[in-house]
């Protein structure tokens, strides 16, 4: 049995001071504490869009690299991680999906995200435009089958011919369709949300921008009530826009993500993201075209940056835990501190830096947090 005391972030607010008692792999009790809290006790972080980290890559299809990436992010507080692929040749994507499905079955990963290949060439970002494909129900079905029930989300550009049929197929298979890498008009994006798309892949990035005479997918997402990913790392989206996003649609609809690639946690240098070469300079990953090519931050780092942008600590934590968990149907087990929930916890110091991480009731990084003063 372990009892933690601190500023406890709950689904309905903050309990400070509070206590969380863990027995086995479950949260057994939550109650009031005493003294001045020395730390934050929060749910384990949930990253639903991440390509790698610590030198390991999920799109590589290499099991050892995938384990390395998952371990790196776990050490920094991300206890539930959805591994993202990028556009590649169909056989490469099928092989990588099968490898990641095995790690999901082992409990290392929380799911798989197929970011591609059904994306718009004009908004492809770091994806190889020569490997993009029109919506193909047969290929999508093969990818879902390779995932053995672990594919959680698929990014689709809704303006492509046949895209709405893919959204319907995903809905019927219990997979979240995400609108992204798109040049869709407001009407086209609205149609995708009406057809069942429930998420936006890294809002603002790799999509038609919001304009007062051409509202595009951003305004459509706001009106549809769907969850919007945002890479709040200070590189992909300006801090002022991050603050505006939270104040406009609220933390219940913002999912903080990293979009991290293999370079996360390492220094500048040359890396790969799927089939493409990426150069990291000053911590910013780009292709030789200048296009951004994923992130290099951890989710705990993105959380801190959101707070620096003016988002409240409680809202930022919600956007890094419960909101993304709900978006992909993971919230029955993770994303919130609640009696009976899986004991995935992150202990943050006063600067919101992880000092201890617990997953399934076991310390995987750090240890027992400081006692109240």
* Element order: H for helix, E for strand: EEEEEEEHEHEHEHEHEHEHEEEEHHHEEE
Principal-axis shape equals: globular
Largest sheet features: 8 strands, parallel
N- to C-terminal distance: 22 Å
> Structural class, judged by helices and strands?
alpha/beta
Low-confidence stretches: none
Order of strands, main sheet, comes to 5-8-9-10-11-12-13-14
Query: What is the rounded Rg?
Result: 20 Å
> How many runs of DSSP E, i.e. beta strands?
20
Strand content: 25-35%
The chain-level mean pLDDT equals 96
- Portion of residues in helices? 25-40%
**Count of runs of 4 or more consecutive helical residues:** 10
Question: Nutshell version of this structure?
Answer:
By secondary structure, the chain is α/β, with parallel strands linked by helices. It has ten helices and 20 strands.
